[in-house]
Write a structure and sequence with these properties.
The protein is mainly α. Helix content is 70%, strand content 2%. Helix 1 packs across helix 2, helix 1 packs across helix 4 and helix 4 packs across helix 8. The longest helix has 26 residues.
Length: 213
């Protein structure tokens, strides 16, 4: 039995239309975007902000560079989207401030922040964020906007006291400074000290920043 030949147009067999470069079908959009973000986090973590390129992110994600720009825009915007996902666990810190009595807020916040750093799953992307922010002004500005808008102002909103934003920033400075020395610079004996011992010493200082007259 003879098979019906494919339709011919202008002397050649018709072919499916070529996919447009840089834009996947809508059914692929969510998965592609997530794949780009995952690749971006890995690239920024391994290379830092300055040495990471949109082309490198695209290559790691298996897509065209135009697609990275389509979803996120500039490298700065890719970095912001990537670190917002990586920093997401720490953004629940204001909940730790709100849940419970005011006289224990310092311990709750301290325990929460160090808990995020102690977890290897959340610590690795945080290390990449901090290292990029320390070494590059653009990365630092992105990190600062994220911290101010989604963390410090939300903590300050929980404090019914004068200078609430300053109090939140001082508490954050205490915790970030300790985290930098313990997990990034790894200064001894802080780097290997028992976590409970650290919390016992740091929590009252954080409490003072947040609630002292």
């Amino acid at each position: 039995m003879n098979e019906t030949p494919p339709p011919v147009k202008n002397g050649t067999a018709s072919e499916p239309p070529a996919r447009r470069r840089g834009r996947p079908p809508r059914t692929e959009s969510a998965g592609t975007r997530d794949r780009i973000l995952a690749a971006a986090r890995e690239e920024f973590s391994a290379r830092g902000y300055e040495k990471t390129s949109v082309r490198g992110i695209a290559k790691a994600a298996g897509v065209d560079s135009a697609l990275v720009h389509h979803y996120f825009g500039t490298k700065e915007q890719v970095f912001e989207a990537a670190i917002e996902v990586a920093f997401a666990p720490a953004l629940h810190a204001p909940d730790a401030v709100a849940e419970g009595p005011p006289d224990a807020v310092g311990e709750r916040l301290t325990r929460f922040i160090f808990g995020v750093w102690e977890n290897p799953t959340t610590r690795v992307p945080l290390l990449a964020i901090v290292r990029s922010a320390v070494n590059n002004d653009t990365a630092a500005a992105v990190f600062r906007r994220l911290i101010a808008a989604q963390l410090l102002r939300r903590i300050a909103a929980q404090l019914d006291l004068p200078d609430a934003e300053l109090r939140a920033e001082l508490a954050a400075a205490q915790l970030v400074g300790c985290a930098m020395l313990r997990y990034v610079i790894k200064v001894e004996p802080l780097a290997s000290a028992d976590l409970e011992q650290i919390i016992v010493r740091v929590a009252p200082v954080v409490q003072g920043h947040l609630t002292a007259p």
